[in-house]
Design brief:
By secondary structure, the chain is an alpha/beta fold. It contains nine helices and eleven strands.
Protein backbone atom coordinates (compact mmCIF):
# COMPACT_ATOMS: atom_id res chain seq x y z
CA UNK A 1 0.00 0.00 0.00
CA UNK A 2 1.59 3.32 -1.00
CA UNK A 3 2.00 5.88 1.77
CA UNK A 4 1.49 9.62 1.39
CA UNK A 5 2.60 12.42 3.65
CA UNK A 6 -0.19 15.00 3.52
CA UNK A 7 1.11 18.30 4.89
CA UNK A 8 -1.63 20.89 5.21
CA UNK A 9 -2.63 23.00 8.21
CA UNK A 10 -6.25 23.49 7.14
CA UNK A 11 -7.92 20.45 8.67
CA UNK A 12 -10.84 20.34 6.24
CA UNK A 13 -8.55 20.27 3.20
CA UNK A 14 -6.22 17.76 4.87
CA UNK A 15 -9.14 15.47 5.71
CA UNK A 16 -10.59 15.76 2.22
CA UNK A 17 -7.26 14.87 0.60
CA UNK A 18 -6.70 11.94 2.96
CA UNK A 19 -10.23 10.66 2.44
CA UNK A 20 -9.91 10.61 -1.34
CA UNK A 21 -6.37 9.23 -1.40
CA UNK A 22 -7.71 6.54 0.94
CA UNK A 23 -10.31 5.64 -1.70
CA UNK A 24 -7.38 5.08 -4.07
CA UNK A 25 -5.76 2.69 -1.65
CA UNK A 26 -3.16 5.19 -0.50
CA UNK A 27 -2.41 5.30 3.21
CA UNK A 28 -2.06 8.87 4.50
CA UNK A 29 0.10 10.34 7.23
CA UNK A 30 -1.64 13.67 7.97
CA UNK A 31 0.53 16.51 9.27
CA UNK A 32 -0.45 20.11 10.03
CA UNK A 33 2.88 21.79 10.70
CA UNK A 34 6.00 22.32 8.58
CA UNK A 35 8.48 21.44 11.29
CA UNK A 36 6.67 18.19 12.06
CA UNK A 37 6.69 17.36 8.36
CA UNK A 38 10.48 17.80 8.19
CA UNK A 39 10.92 15.57 11.25
CA UNK A 40 8.68 12.80 9.95
CA UNK A 41 10.12 12.92 6.42
CA UNK A 42 13.62 12.60 7.86
CA UNK A 43 12.90 9.18 9.38
CA UNK A 44 9.92 7.57 7.59
CA UNK A 45 10.15 6.61 3.92
CA UNK A 46 6.98 7.54 2.03
CA UNK A 47 5.88 7.17 -1.60
CA UNK A 48 4.60 10.68 -2.18
CA UNK A 49 4.31 14.03 -0.40
CA UNK A 50 1.36 16.40 -0.84
CA UNK A 51 2.69 19.66 0.50
CA UNK A 52 0.90 22.94 1.11
CA UNK A 53 2.95 26.07 0.51
CA UNK A 54 1.60 28.14 3.42
CA UNK A 55 2.22 26.31 6.67
CA UNK A 56 2.97 27.15 10.30
CA UNK A 57 6.36 26.10 11.65
CA UNK A 58 8.18 26.02 8.32
CA UNK A 59 6.72 26.94 4.93
CA UNK A 60 6.34 24.50 2.05
CA UNK A 61 9.51 25.71 0.34
CA UNK A 62 11.60 25.00 3.45
CA UNK A 63 9.93 21.62 3.90
CA UNK A 64 10.51 20.74 0.27
CA UNK A 65 14.22 21.59 0.48
CA UNK A 66 14.59 19.65 3.73
CA UNK A 67 12.93 16.57 2.19
CA UNK A 68 15.28 16.73 -0.81
CA UNK A 69 18.23 16.67 1.63
CA UNK A 70 16.77 13.92 3.80
CA UNK A 71 18.42 10.49 3.75
CA UNK A 72 15.24 8.44 3.27
CA UNK A 73 13.05 10.62 1.06
CA UNK A 74 15.42 12.61 -1.15
CA UNK A 75 13.81 11.32 -4.36
CA UNK A 76 10.17 11.16 -3.22
CA UNK A 77 7.69 12.79 -5.62
CA UNK A 78 6.40 16.06 -4.16
CA UNK A 79 3.12 17.65 -5.23
CA UNK A 80 2.84 21.22 -4.00
CA UNK A 81 -0.38 23.08 -3.25
CA UNK A 82 -0.08 26.77 -3.98
CA UNK A 83 -2.63 29.21 -2.66
CA UNK A 84 -2.82 31.51 -5.66
CA UNK A 85 -2.21 31.12 -9.34
CA UNK A 86 0.77 33.33 -8.60
CA UNK A 87 3.57 32.47 -10.98
CA UNK A 88 6.29 33.35 -8.47
CA UNK A 89 4.92 30.80 -5.97
CA UNK A 90 4.93 28.15 -8.63
CA UNK A 91 8.44 28.94 -9.80
CA UNK A 92 9.70 28.94 -6.22
CA UNK A 93 8.02 25.62 -5.57
CA UNK A 94 9.51 23.95 -8.62
CA UNK A 95 12.92 25.48 -7.91
CA UNK A 96 12.88 24.13 -4.39
CA UNK A 97 12.41 20.61 -5.75
CA UNK A 98 8.68 19.99 -6.10
CA UNK A 99 7.72 17.75 -9.05
CA UNK A 100 4.32 19.18 -9.77
CA UNK A 101 1.84 21.64 -8.34
CA UNK A 102 -1.88 22.21 -8.00
CA UNK A 103 -3.32 25.66 -7.51
CA UNK A 104 -5.91 26.25 -4.79
CA UNK A 105 -8.82 26.01 -4.97
CA UNK A 106 -8.33 22.64 -6.65
CA UNK A 107 -10.75 19.91 -7.64
CA UNK A 108 -10.14 16.80 -5.58
CA UNK A 109 -10.24 14.63 -8.71
CA UNK A 110 -7.51 16.69 -10.30
CA UNK A 111 -5.37 16.33 -7.20
CA UNK A 112 -5.92 12.58 -7.06
CA UNK A 113 -5.02 12.29 -10.76
CA UNK A 114 -1.77 14.20 -10.22
CA UNK A 115 -0.88 12.02 -7.23
CA UNK A 116 -1.50 8.87 -9.25
CA UNK A 117 0.62 10.18 -12.13
CA UNK A 118 3.49 10.93 -9.76
CA UNK A 119 3.20 7.51 -8.12
CA UNK A 120 3.50 5.85 -11.53
CA UNK A 121 6.76 7.63 -12.20
CA UNK A 122 9.79 5.46 -11.40
CA UNK A 123 11.96 6.65 -8.52
CA UNK A 124 15.65 6.76 -7.94
CA UNK A 125 17.36 9.07 -10.41
CA UNK A 126 18.07 11.61 -7.72
CA UNK A 127 15.59 14.40 -8.33
CA UNK A 128 15.77 17.44 -10.58
CA UNK A 129 15.46 17.46 -14.34
CA UNK A 130 16.96 14.01 -14.73
CA UNK A 131 13.87 12.31 -13.42
CA UNK A 132 11.37 14.36 -15.39
CA UNK A 133 13.45 14.09 -18.51
CA UNK A 134 13.92 10.31 -18.31
CA UNK A 135 10.51 9.22 -17.18
CA UNK A 136 8.02 11.97 -17.90
CA UNK A 137 5.20 11.76 -20.39
CA UNK A 138 5.54 12.95 -23.98
CA UNK A 139 4.74 16.58 -24.61
CA UNK A 140 3.13 17.89 -27.80
CA UNK A 141 2.79 21.63 -28.06
CA UNK A 142 2.61 24.06 -30.96
CA UNK A 143 4.02 21.67 -33.55
CA UNK A 144 6.73 20.39 -31.20
CA UNK A 145 6.70 16.75 -30.12
CA UNK A 146 8.99 15.77 -27.27
CA UNK A 147 9.20 12.10 -26.31
CA UNK A 148 11.30 11.41 -23.22
CA UNK A 149 11.23 7.61 -23.54
CA UNK A 150 12.90 7.82 -26.96
CA UNK A 151 14.63 11.14 -26.23
CA UNK A 152 13.21 12.35 -29.51
CA UNK A 153 12.26 15.86 -30.62
CA UNK A 154 10.21 16.63 -33.70
CA UNK A 155 9.45 20.06 -35.09
CA UNK A 156 6.44 20.00 -37.42
CA UNK A 157 7.07 16.29 -37.99
CA UNK A 158 10.77 16.72 -38.74
CA UNK A 159 13.12 14.93 -36.34
CA UNK A 160 15.78 17.13 -34.74
CA UNK A 161 18.97 15.80 -33.12
CA UNK A 162 19.52 17.24 -29.66
CA UNK A 163 22.03 16.59 -26.92
CA UNK A 164 20.98 15.30 -23.50
CA UNK A 165 21.27 18.79 -22.02
CA UNK A 166 19.35 20.41 -24.84
CA UNK A 167 16.68 17.77 -24.38
CA UNK A 168 16.51 18.33 -20.62
CA UNK A 169 16.16 22.08 -21.09
CA UNK A 170 13.47 21.81 -23.76
CA UNK A 171 11.50 19.16 -21.91
CA UNK A 172 11.51 21.08 -18.64
CA UNK A 173 10.36 24.33 -20.26
CA UNK A 174 7.81 22.79 -22.62
CA UNK A 175 6.27 20.76 -19.78
CA UNK A 176 5.48 24.04 -18.00
CA UNK A 177 4.56 26.56 -20.69
CA UNK A 178 4.45 30.14 -19.45
CA UNK A 179 6.40 29.38 -16.28
CA UNK A 180 9.54 31.47 -15.98
CA UNK A 181 12.71 29.68 -14.88
CA UNK A 182 15.70 31.67 -13.67
CA UNK A 183 19.14 30.74 -15.04
CA UNK A 184 20.05 29.42 -11.59
CA UNK A 185 16.99 27.17 -11.50
CA UNK A 186 17.80 25.80 -14.94
CA UNK A 187 21.43 25.29 -13.95
CA UNK A 188 20.58 23.22 -10.91
CA UNK A 189 18.06 21.14 -12.84
CA UNK A 190 20.05 20.45 -15.99
CA UNK A 191 23.61 20.16 -14.78
CA UNK A 192 22.90 18.10 -11.69
CA UNK A 193 26.45 16.88 -11.16
CA UNK A 194 28.70 19.42 -12.88
CA UNK A 195 30.08 22.29 -10.81
CA UNK A 196 31.97 23.96 -13.67
CA UNK A 197 28.99 25.76 -15.10
CA UNK A 198 27.76 29.33 -14.77
CA UNK A 199 24.49 31.07 -15.66
CA UNK A 200 26.18 31.89 -18.99
CA UNK A 201 26.18 28.16 -19.76
CA UNK A 202 22.38 28.35 -19.76
CA UNK A 203 22.42 31.16 -22.32
CA UNK A 204 24.76 29.16 -24.53
CA UNK A 205 22.57 26.09 -24.27
CA UNK A 206 19.42 28.10 -25.10
CA UNK A 207 21.17 29.56 -28.13
CA UNK A 208 22.18 26.11 -29.41
CA UNK A 209 18.69 24.75 -28.85
CA UNK A 210 17.09 27.68 -30.68
CA UNK A 211 19.27 27.06 -33.71
CA UNK A 212 17.91 23.53 -33.83
CA UNK A 213 14.20 24.07 -33.20
CA UNK A 214 13.32 27.65 -34.09
CA UNK A 215 12.45 28.69 -37.64
CA UNK A 216 14.12 32.03 -36.90
CA UNK A 217 16.47 31.73 -33.89
CA UNK A 218 16.67 35.52 -33.64
CA UNK A 219 12.88 35.68 -33.17
CA UNK A 220 12.13 32.55 -31.17
CA UNK A 221 8.59 31.19 -31.06
CA UNK A 222 9.19 28.45 -28.48
CA UNK A 223 11.87 29.29 -25.93
CA UNK A 224 11.44 32.93 -24.96
CA UNK A 225 13.75 35.22 -23.04
CA UNK A 226 12.16 36.99 -20.09
CA UNK A 227 14.37 39.98 -19.54
CA UNK A 228 15.88 40.18 -16.07
CA UNK A 229 14.24 36.89 -15.07
CA UNK A 230 15.24 33.94 -17.23
CA UNK A 231 13.49 31.80 -19.81
CA UNK A 232 10.07 30.36 -20.44
CA UNK A 233 8.29 28.29 -23.04
CA UNK A 234 5.68 30.28 -24.98
CA UNK A 235 2.19 30.08 -23.45
CA UNK A 236 -0.29 28.00 -25.38
CA UNK A 237 -2.58 29.98 -27.68
CA1 LIG B 1 -2.05 26.31 4.50
Amino acid sequence: MPRALVVEDEANIRDLVCLHLGFEGIECVPIGDGRDAIAVAAREPVDIVVLDLMLPGADGIAVCRAIRRSPVNSDVPILMLTARSDESDTVLGLESGADDYVTKPFGIRELVARVRALLRRPRGSGGGAGRAEEFGRPVAIRGLEIDPARRRVRVDGREVEVTAQEFALLYLLASHPGIVYSREALLSRIWTDDTHVTPRSVDTLVKRLRHKIEADPARPAYVLTVWGAGYKFADAG
